[in-house]
Amino acid sequence: MSKEPDRIFAQPLDKVPDFAFNEDVVRVFPDMIKRSVPGYPTIVENLGVLAAQFAQPNSVLYDLGASLGAVTQALRRHVRTDGCRVIAVDNSAAMVERCREYLNGQNSMFQELLPVEVIEGDILALDFQPASVVALNFTLQFIAPEQRTALLSRIRRSLLPGGALILSEKLRFNDAEEHALLTDLHVAFKRANGYSELEIAQKRSAIENVMKPDSLEEHRERLLAAGFSKVVPWFQCLNFASLIALP
Ligand SMILES: C[S@@+](CC[C@H](N)C(=O)[O-])C[C@H]1O[C@@H](n2cnc3c(N)ncnc32)[C@H](O)[C@@H]1O
Ligand SMILES: O=C(O)C(=O)C[C@]1(C(=O)O)C=C[C@@H](O)C=C1
């Protein structure tokens, strides 16, 4: 994985463009996400552990919005169920190209890994195959809010009995005081990870039009409306959380 440090917002910009998963972001993405999302390494590794509990023989495991394939690699480290294969999907050409390189490197180093197919495409247009695990790791927040329920309904319909959706997201909070406190603590987390005030402020304006977090209550209601029977939060660090949704 690239070790290049994220300096994307380090210099003052006349106008901060909307955030995009382009070549510049791809180059620094492992550093960016680790320094921006509290608990990210724990979530990714344990997503593999959780997935192993829900994986059903001869089924598909989806990594939706796979970026560089961190979740796919965790699935390959932990899932040992017979006949499983991973389908990783992302609509950023730059991400997909680099993701394929990393996974090919993994293929040549280890034997008996789950087969992986990396698809460059829009998860909103995906024809889902019967799946036992679907991971949306910090991806739903980038989908237009009015399209989220339909996507989750299609995922729900593709899930096999015994399977699960694992959904990780940045959260907002309905209680203004709680929202302000956890937002401040997230800024402190970024500062402690070496981001300057300028970098933090410019990143905030870059993502505000493209990334729309929901509250835990909104997630729960939407998942139930999409046909899931049970929603169980399994991780929260500051304003970032991960949920298990059962069919
Ligand atoms: C924050 S990143 C996900 C991080 C990744 N899952 C991980 O754990 O390292 C969000 C990803 O979702 C992808 N994405 C956003 N909208 C998408 C869509 N409609 N279809 C496919 N991928 C999408 C972006 O290109 C980006 O790579
Ligand atoms: O909330 C922020 O400030 C973030 O930087 C979050 C976030 C994310 O949750 O995906 C946004 C974009 C990058 O992909 C990395 C992290």
From TrEMBL:
InterPro entries: CmoA (IPR005271), Methyltransf_25 (IPR041698), SAM-dependent_MTases_sf (IPR029063). Its EC number is 2.1.3.-. It catalyses: prephenate + S-adenosyl-L-methionine = carboxy-S-adenosyl-L-methionine + 3-phenylpyruvate + H2O. S-adenosyl-L-methionine binds at residues 40, 65-67, 90-91, 122-123, 137, 204. Gene3D superfamilies: Vaccinia Virus protein VP39 (3.40.50.150). Keywords: S-adenosyl-L-methionine, Transferase. It comes from the Bacteria. Catalyzes the conversion of S-adenosyl-L-methionine (SAM) to carboxy-S-adenosyl-L-methionine (Cx-SAM). Belongs to the class I-like SAM-binding methyltransferase superfamily. Cx-SAM synthase family. This is Carboxy-S-adenosyl-L-methionine synthase.
